[in-house]
Amino acid sequence: MRRVRSGAAALAAALFCVPAAAAPEQAELCGACHGARGVAEMAEVPSLAGQPETFLTLQMILFRERIRRFEPMNAAMQGLRDAEVEALARFYASLPPAQPEAAGDPERTARGRALSAEHRCGVCHRADYAGQNQVPRLSGQREDYLLHAMRDYQAGTRQGTDTSMQAALYGLTERDLADLALYLATVPTSR
After folding, report:
1. How many CB atoms lie within 10 A of CB 110?
2. Which pairs with CB-CB distance under 8 Å and at least 24 residues apart come from 144-150?
3. Nearest 5°: CA angle at 43, between 39 and 48?
4. Taking 80 as the threshold, does the pLDDT of residue 91 lie above it?
5. Which residues contact 66 (CB under 8 A, 6 or more apart)?
6. Using 50, 70 and 90 to split pLDDT, how confident is the model at 31?
7. What is the location of CATH 1.10.760.10 in the chain?
8. Which CATH architecture describes the domain 23-94?
9. Is the pLDDT of residue 21 over 50?
10. pTM for the full model?
11. What are residue 135's DSSP bridge partners?
12. pLDDT class of 22 with cuts at 50, 70, 90
């Protein structure tokens, strides 16, 4: 009988929780760069809205533990407890993702689409580029941020949990990266 009550209590709690009812206190600080609702307007800053919760949690822990180094993020994450990191991740994951940028040059977009297929970006990031688990959403992300991130991965200056992105981007030219970023930034978002 105790098991039934515990299960019922958990179900009731889950049903009455509103994912984005209130932003965690730390979200105000995050919003200065990443946008009040997680949609960045600053150059080379990623949008957080609609990113997979596991991805967001992992990235914040990597910054907090200084495994990933970018001083503004290292400082912002310093001292956050796991529960606070998880609350921030849950909040941003619950927000509607950023809308894609307007379609750019059709020839470059087609090249980017072909490069994405050739390099199998959809295997990890999913066919709709919505991301999954520890893999980020690319659809609707800022073109300048995507290009910046790919350059960093290719140069080996962006640290993460593995080297799969360095391998995926190996041999791509600057033009390839730019066309790929353009294409990914214009892919329609899905939830």
Report:
1. 12
2. 144/43, 144/44, 144/181, 145/40, 145/43, 145/44, 145/45, 145/46, 145/47, 146/180, 146/181, 146/184, 146/185, 147/177, 147/178, 147/181, 148/44, 149/46, 150/177, 150/180, 150/181
3. 25
4. yes
5. 74
6. very high
7. 23-94, 106-186
8. Orthogonal Bundle (1.10)
9. no
10. 0.84
11. 132
12. low
Domain 106-186, architecture per CATH: Orthogonal Bundle (1.10)
- Give burial (CB, 10 Å; 0-12/13-18/19+) of 88: buried
Q: Which residues contact 165 (CB under 8 A, 6 or more apart)?
A: 150, 153, 158
How far is Cα 103 from Cα 172, in angstroms, rounded to an integer? 22
Name every residue whose Cβ is closer than 8 Å to that of residue 87 and which is 6 or more positions away in sequence: 24, 26
How many residues can be counted in the chain? 191
Residue 111 tokens, joined: 């090249």
Output the pLDDT for position 174: 98
CA nearest neighbour of 47 among 131, 159, 162: 131
The first and second tokens of residue 107, run together, are: 């020839």
User: Are the CB atoms for 139 and 187 separated by under 8 Å?
Assistant: yes
The larger pLDDT score, comparing residue 83 to residue 104, is at 83
Strand, helix or coil for residue 135: strand
